[in-house]
Amino acid sequence: MTATAVAHPNIALVKYWGKADASLALPATGSVSMGLDVFPTTTSVTVGGSAEDTLTLNGSVSTDGALVRVTQFLDLVRELAGSSARASVVTENTVPTGAGLASSASGFAALATAAAAAYGLDLSARDLSRLARRGSGSATRSIPGGVAVWHAGDDEGSYAEPIPAPPMAMVVVTIDAGPKAIGSREAMRRTIATSPFYPAWVTSTTETVGDMLTACAAGDFARIGELTESNALRMHATIEGAFPPIRYLNARSVAVFDAVAELRAAGLPAYATADAGPNVVVLTTPEDRAAVATALTGFGDVIESGTGPGAYLLGSEVPATQDPEAPAPGVVRPEESAE
Ligand code: PMV
Question: Which residue ranges of the chain lie beneath pLDDT 70?
């Protein structure tokens, strides 16, 4: 049985940084994100036919940590499905892998969607989001796509769902597409263990999630933007407070933050954010994205993005399974089912 799914990365407007429970991947706070419509990951899962799980990532057979993470994730799916069959996973990732541009978000959202279908699970959108969470925290939010909130909570309550928000766009400024020096798992652990700012991060971010939901519901783009930039800088300050320190932003990243402040002073709605890497993503409006992209050309590779879809199955040899109560992402889209 083979199923193929597509998922897109998301960029947090209010960041997830730190787990309350590592084994269940429960976050210490809620977070809010915008899904992108660029950098899709397409993943096919074929159940059976091999004695071990296999992973082919962008055409190369993987035998390292990536395969271990995929196997651990498939073990969860097998447990839910009551199956012991191994699977082969083939994934095409168009995000610069490991560069702090959320390749794990699109990767595990696509894997969760394809694997659930290939193992015959009938999961609601909520349960698919909970499943993706176990692969990578930020993947939780790539199941719904759009603008989404990921709730902190227990295993049942920690999932992402779409929220109403004004039309928004992003401009991704890729300064360095190489893998980051320290992965987010290890960096989160070190931040929690050693950064004296971590408790304040948890308190303030919990408050910011509430403020962001209010701003999104009100369609207040300027407020969404200022909360986004502030929360990103607070996250980086908290991470820099770890010992030994971790610093993801470099001089060129900071130059983009400065350039974005200048664009704002000149009247363009633009607000900067950055994940666990040097690349900067600029939140703006659909009307202004081209002007923002033009202004930032020269700082790095510049790519515009609108708000993207949730994870979905491509036409496959299995029926789309979904909970009628929930707007499940596991829908076979008519235009793609012909492929
Ligand atoms: O879930 P991970 O391991 O990809 O961690 C994501 C961490 C950030 O991208 C920095 C923040 C976020 O909320 O996406």
Answer: 96-102, 179, 316-339
Asked if residue 327 is part of any domain, the answer here is: no
The span from the CA of 10 to the CA of 317, in Å, is 28
270: CB partners within 8 A, 6+ apart: 171, 225, 260, 263, 264, 282, 283, 284, 288, 292
257 contacts: CB under 8 Å, gap ≥ 6: 229, 249, 272, 280
pTM value? 0.92
Cα of 68 vs centre of ligand 1, distance in Å, is: 20
In angstroms, rounded to a whole number, what is the distance separating the alpha carbons of residues 197 and 210? 20
Q: Where are the beta strands (DSSP E) in 247-305?
A: 270-273, 280-284, 301-305
Ligand 1 atom nearest to CA at 100: 9
- Concatenating the DSSP letter of every residue in 186-205 gives HHHHHHHHH-TTHHHHHHHH
> Under DSSP, is residue 339 helix (H, G, I), strand (E, B) or coil?
coil
| Residue 153 and residue 199 in one domain | no
| pLDDT tens-digit readout, 105-131 | 999 999 999 999 999 999 999 999 999
Output the domain CATH number for residue 292: 3.30.70.890
Q: Is residue 30 located within the same domain as residue 155? A: yes
Cα–ligand 1 centroid distance for 325 (angstroms): 29
